[in-house]
Amino acid sequence: MLQKTTIQFLKDLKQNNHRDWFEANRKVYEAAKADYLQLVGEVLKGVGENDGTLAILQPKECVFRINRDVRFSKDKSPYKTNMGAGFGKGGKKMILAGYYLHCEPGGSFIAGGMWMPPAPELKKIRQEIDYCFEEFDGIVTSPSFKQQLRALENSKDMVLSRPPKGYEESNPAIQYLKLKSYIASAAIPDAVLTSKELVPTIVAACKAAQPLIYFINKALEG
Hints:
globular
């Protein structure tokens, strides 16, 4: 669970997203960061019982910096209003499929899979789905996956209007082959963030996402 002071810090930061306020409240931030690192450590331990790829990871290797990269953004707010962590092979620097934890009042979630893979990787994933359609379909329609994560992200901007090159509309896997991302997520209610149910909730969602992550990484690593 996260401390209520951590959640309050994120709320206050959203209303005071500038350097002077942040520096005046740096000690509060450091306490919030330590709290989040502890949470990530508990999650790594829980998920690692079933996913050996996380065994060597430390929380600090997974937690993203709170500073925003504003070089190419119209929004020049210097800080993120969430705390995030990526854990998979390579931690937050992972180039394969993995897990992502996003904690933000009113918008927290846990996700698993691969977001917007580059063209070469996307081609490999689609080929694996085409070759192993029944296996992939079984993963994303399994009771545990549907219960914890509902379905793969398939909003309009995440789906091609036409079949990708080399595939026909009649392909039995076409609904998956048209996807631009292979990721699923579960919202985390604010009330859960500061409850003892937080870690079990995150771990359960990660366990449900694990077969999807393994499938994608099998396609990418060969």
